[in-house]
């Protein structure tokens, strides 16, 4: 029987599914419902020193796919707008009522030692199992010198982490990173130098999600004006996966625990982050769109997956994909694929042809089949094995990418005969 | 029963498998049927309301997202007017509804009627590749209707402009789909058109020959008003070829002539009792019903027998039932697979409690002054030939509607070459008389389809333009 128990940077959790610091973790009633639904933990909505912030209305914009499904949300909400004391009392109460569940206190303060330390101490008194430093919020708070304004300066990341870790002692500290930087490894390194037990990433991506062409204002619109906000949801998952692997692969940052965030909607998303080195995951958008109930399938799906692969624990497959995640320079350039279109499954939509013709390598030919039918076949001389046809084909498994048995040895660019700077034979 | 959308979606599932959006809308409304005491005026009004309410914005958007946007799509080839279907659906998806309507109308100026009345199940939707993936096809007809009706509802200027005026006038016989399509395209190409219509209203079968619930809310007339918005088209009513208009006169007045006169002579069964009171031509019945201001005043029988297996027979049978006839039986001499009525139409008839009986040839109608019954002989195929078995049976009938097809009123066209009883045309739609073009049901290839008539008219106008300009 697979066990979803995990240890995330020293925090023990019954499963790897935590709710990220956001509206779903804003108050007692939400978090209680989440725990009842089965979530392993919750990172409380970021707390600041009183007086609380004032939020604007409206707050969310969305990016949709063609079938009106939501692929991304952009928000301009700030940190908790409720009094600190009230939040702290509620955290304490939930810690008592749900001792087996995790509550992480998220905090944000001006870049002053006392402000960070004082706030951290108050939150620690509630019995939270860890602290998360919000150094990532890309809207509003950064204009006051907080959030991503701190997260974008490695020295400040290190400094704030150190301040909080000094107060936290043996309680784990996670530094939450902003993706709105050039190289995620740099702030991760800074967090490690500051004494962080782990990093949480990614925070939201700076964005304008759409423009209302009637009012000529960005969405969400507040009394006729809009601003950039933080983008999240399934659309940001690829960005997050890349940043997670970068930290997990770098020897300087590899010892950090990773609490992965970024568009996680299903157990499969979670498994992918864990395979790239995350100890646990945090979810926000999916819970906001569908409710806390989605954790049911996350738990059941991940358990099934682990049992099928005979992984007994999360640790059994954590980081398993890292060994196959390499730099481009380490790829075998003699590896060759050709697309094969299974004629019996083809529905003759022509999407592969036009995609290849206009967008790739002009390798798919239209022919005349019996009774006015069309056939689509791959010209192997032109096919470069790029996968584009496979991706646009609306029929699963109709197009197969077949490796060519060319008998050639593996060769990467540094060793390639056509590389004028090649090293060795 | 209320006809609001919410209720419609919760009604018992229809008889056909896995209803799509459109089918739920169409099938969800259960027509009122008479328990012998007839139907009230309100019930009849509901029975003749729009069969397929137009998709709302969300429905259209969701449905448009199902389209795979095929390259060189099979649905385009299956459309007689070759509407660029993937493009117009993509334009719905991108919220460019005006562009979508333009895409449709540039290929088919009567795209609104076709979205409502085309047998899409044997045209574009049959060719949809989603069928091959084991799914319901994209509701192309419903999407087309959505885009065109949106444009018409917005009003504003006509979406097409006219080429520099040629100073020439083309003459058109018949203001049906073929004639008006010809006139519209000729007007776009810079010519003026004068249309001669025998009846008091334009539209041909769109106005007189389709079931009322397919063309609800005066759609045929609204579409023609829209079509005439191009300008340069004049229609003269009460003018029939051979009666008060002659081809010779037209040839002298006009630079080119188009005949879109349809087929207006009715076929006869040639059996005893055909002249009894209560035996009618189905098209006449449909026409009267379409023109009736108050349909509850239309008379129908208690036991109605419809003879024929085409869509006109279906339209007559369903409408009889919806008027309150107790028993409506469609009688067809061959097997169901030989019917020209599509499977969708036959299903619709059955959900309207129409009984379809096959392998029965009419022998005679019974009655003294008024018809009281119809006698049929059972039929079978013998050596590839339809033959009677000698066994007869009779069914009660106080109304008989004959839907056995029309033929060309050929005396009118004595001066031109006919083939198989219809007007012969070359590949440019020109008849044997130079400068005289023809299209729609009156030509050899005529198919009893609005969409085909529109295509004929369009192509003939392009050919006539070349003829007029001496190119």
Report the sheet-strand fraction of chain B.
15-25%
- In percent terms, what proportion of residues of chain A is strand? 15-25%
Identify low-pLDDT runs of chain B.
1-27
The total of beta strands of chain B comes to 17
Q: Main β-sheet of chain A: number of strands, strand sense, barrel status?
A: 8 strands, parallel, barrel
Cα distance, first to last residue of chain A?
Answer: 49 Å
Can you tell me about this structure?
The complex is a heterodimer of chains A (425) and B (471). The relative contact order of chain A is 0.11. In chain A, strands 3-4-7-8-9-10-15-16 form an 8-stranded parallel β-barrel, surrounded by 8 helices. In chain A, strands 5-6-14-11 form a 4-stranded antiparallel beta sheet, with no helix packed on it. A two-stranded antiparallel ribbon of chain A has the order 1-2. Chain A is α/β, with parallel strands linked by helices and 425 residues long. Chain A has helices spanning 28-37, 84-97, 113-124, 148-151, 154-168, 185-193, 237-249, 267-275, 285-290, 295-308, 314-317, 351-359, 388-392, and strands spanning 6-8, 11-13, 17-19, 41-43, 60-64, 70-75, 102-107, 130-134, 173-176, 198-201, 205-207, 210-212, 217-219, 229-232, 257-261, 280-283, 337-341, 364-368, 374-378, 399-403. The longest helix of chain B is centred in the last third of the chain and has 19 residues, at 450-468. Chain B starts with a helix and ends with a helix. Chain B has 3 domains: 50-154, Fumarate Reductase Iron-sulfur Protein, Chain B, domain 2 (Orthogonal Bundle), CATH 1.10.1060; 169-264 and 407-468, FAD/NAD(P)-binding domain; 268-404, FAD/NAD(P)-binding domain.
Topology readout:
The complex is a heterodimer of chains A (425) and B (471).
Chain A: E1 6-8, E2 11-13, E3 17-19, H1 28-37, E4 41-43, E5 60-64, E6 70-75, H2 84-97, E7 102-107, H3 113-124, E8 130-134, H4 148-151, H5 154-168, E9 173-176, H6 185-193, E10 198-201, E11 205-207, E12 210-212, E13 217-219, E14 229-232, H7 237-249, E15 257-261, H8 267-275, E16 280-283, H9 285-290, H10 295-308, H11 314-317, E17 337-341, H12 351-359, E18 364-368, E19 374-378, H13 388-392, E20 399-403
Chain B: H1 5-10, H2 21-28, H3 41-47, H4 57-64, H5 74-78, H6 85-93, H7 97-107, H8 111-117, H9 124-127, H10 140-154, E1 169-173, H11 177-188, E2 192-197, H12 205-208, H13 219-228, E3 233-237, H14 247-253, E4 256-259, E5 265-266, E6 279-281, H15 282-291, E7 303-307, H16 311-323, E8 327-331, H17 343-351, E9 355-357, E10 360-367, E11 371-382, E12 385-396, E13 399-402, E14 406-407, E15 418-419, E16 422-423, E17 436-438, H18 450-468
Parallel strand pairs in B: 1-2, 1-4, 2-3, 4-17, 6-13, 7-8, 7-13, 8-9
Antiparallel strand pairs in B: 5-14, 10-11, 11-12, 15-16
């Amino acid at each position: 029987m697979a066990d979803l128990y995990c240890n995330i940077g020293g925090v023990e959790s019954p499963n790897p599914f935590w709710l990220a610091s956001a509206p779903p973790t804003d108050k007692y009633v939400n978090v209680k419902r989440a725990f009842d639904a089965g979530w392993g933990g919750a990172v409380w909505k970021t707390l600041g020193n009183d007086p609380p912030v004032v939020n604007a209305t409206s707050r969310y914009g969305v990016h949709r796919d063609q079938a009106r499904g939501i692929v991304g949300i952009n928000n301009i909400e700030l940190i908790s707008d409720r009094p600190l004391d009230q939040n702290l009392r509620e955290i304490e109460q939930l810690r008592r009522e749900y001792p087996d569940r995790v509550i992480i206190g998220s905090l944000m303060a001006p870049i002053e030692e006392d402000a960070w330390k004082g706030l951290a101490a108050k939150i620690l008194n509630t019995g939270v199992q860890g602290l998360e430093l919000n150094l990532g919020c890309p809207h509003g708070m950064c204009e006051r010198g907080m959030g991503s304004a701190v997260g974008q300066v490695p020295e400040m990341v290190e400094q704030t982490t150190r301040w909080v870790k000094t107060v936290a002692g043996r309680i784990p500290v996670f530094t939450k990173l902003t993706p709105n930087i050039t190289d995620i490894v740099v702030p991760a390194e800074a967090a490690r130098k500051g004494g962080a037990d782990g990093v949480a990433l990614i925070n939201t991506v700076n964005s304008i999600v759409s423009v209302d062409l009637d009012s000529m204002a960005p969405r969400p619109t507040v009394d006729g004006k809009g601003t950039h906000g933080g983008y999240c949801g399934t659309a940001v998952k690829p960005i997050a996966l890349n940043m997670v692997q970068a930290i997990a692969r770098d020897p300087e940052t590899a010892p950090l625990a990773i609490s992965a965030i970024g568009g996680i909607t299903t157990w499969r998303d979670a498994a992918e982050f864990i395979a790239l080195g995350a100890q646990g995951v945090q979810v926000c958008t999916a819970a906001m769109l569908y409710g806390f109930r989605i954790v049911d399938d996350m738990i059941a799906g991940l358990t099934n997956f682990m049992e099928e692969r005979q992984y007994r624990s999360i640790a059994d497959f954590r980081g398993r994909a890292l060994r196959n995640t390499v730099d481009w320079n380490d790829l075998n350039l003699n590896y060759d694929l050709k697309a094969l279109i299974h004629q019996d499954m083809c529905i003759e939509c022509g999407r592969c042809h036009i995609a290849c013709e206009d967008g790739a390598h002009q390798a798919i030919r239209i022919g005349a089949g019996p009774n006015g039918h069309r056939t689509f076949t791959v010209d192997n001389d032109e096919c470069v094995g790029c996968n584009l046809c496979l991706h646009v084909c609306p029929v699963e498994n109709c197009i197969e990418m077949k490796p060519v048995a060319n008998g050639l040895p593996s060769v990467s660019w540094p060793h390639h005969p056509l590389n004028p700077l090649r090293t060795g034979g | 029963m209320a006809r609001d959308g919410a209720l419609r979606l919760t009604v018992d599932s229809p008889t056909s498998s896995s209803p799509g959006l459109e089918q739920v809308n169409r099938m969800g409304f259960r027509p009122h049927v008479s328990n012998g005491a007839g139907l009230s005026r309100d019930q009849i009004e509901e029975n003749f309301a729009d069969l397929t309410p137009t998709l709302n914005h969300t429905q259209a958007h969701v449905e448009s997202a199902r389209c795979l946007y095929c390259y060189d799509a099979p649905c385009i080839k299956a459309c007689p007017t070759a509407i660029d279907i993937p493009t117009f659906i993509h334009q719905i998806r991108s919220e460019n509804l005006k562009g979508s309507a333009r895409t449709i109308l540039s290929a088919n100026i009567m795209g609104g009627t076709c979205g409502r009345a085309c047998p899409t199940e044997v045209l574009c939707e049959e060719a949809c590749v989603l069928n091959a993936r084991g799914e319901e096809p994209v509701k192309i007809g419903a999407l087309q209707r959505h885009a065109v009706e949106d444009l018409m509802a917005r009003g504003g200027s006509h979406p097409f402009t006219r080429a520099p005026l040629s100073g020439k006038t083309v003459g058109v016989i018949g203001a049906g789909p073929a004639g008006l399509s010809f006139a519209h395209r000729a007007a776009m190409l810079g010519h003026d058109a004068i249309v001669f219509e025998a009846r008091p209203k334009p539209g041909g079968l769109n106005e007189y020959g389709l079931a009322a619930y397919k063309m609800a809310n005066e759609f045929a007339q609204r579409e023609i008003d829209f079509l005439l918005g191009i300008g340069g088209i004049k229609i003269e009513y009460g003018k029939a070829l051979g009666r008060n208009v002659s081809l010779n006169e037209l040839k002298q007045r006009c630079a080119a002539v188009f005949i879109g006169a349809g087929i207006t002579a009715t076929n006869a069964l040639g059996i005893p009792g055909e002249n009894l009171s209560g035996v009618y031509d189905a098209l006449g019945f449909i026409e009267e019903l379409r023109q009736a201001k108050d349909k509850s005043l239309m008379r129908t029988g208690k036991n109605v027998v419809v003879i024929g297996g085409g869509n006109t027979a279906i339209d007559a049978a369903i409408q009889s039932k919806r008027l309150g006839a107790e028993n409506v039986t469609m009688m067809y001499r061959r097997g169901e697979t030989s019917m020209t009525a599509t499977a969708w139409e036959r299903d619709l008839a059955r959900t309207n409690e129409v009984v379809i009986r096959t392998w029965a040839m009419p022998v005679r109608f019974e009655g003294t002054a008024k018809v009281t019954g119809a006698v049929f002989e059972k039929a079978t195929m013998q050596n590839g030939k339809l033959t009677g078995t000698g066994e007869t049976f009779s069914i009660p009938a106080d109304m008989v509607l004959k839907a056995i097809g029309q033929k060309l009123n050929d005396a009118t066209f004595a001066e031109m070459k006919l083939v198989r009883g219809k007007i012969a045309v070359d590949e440019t739609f020109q008849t044997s008389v130079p400068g005289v073009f023809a299209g729609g049901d009156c030509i050899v290839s005529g198919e009893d389809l609005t969409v085909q008539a529109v295509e004929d008219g369009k192509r003939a106008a392009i050919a006539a333009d070349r003829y007029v300009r001496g190119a």
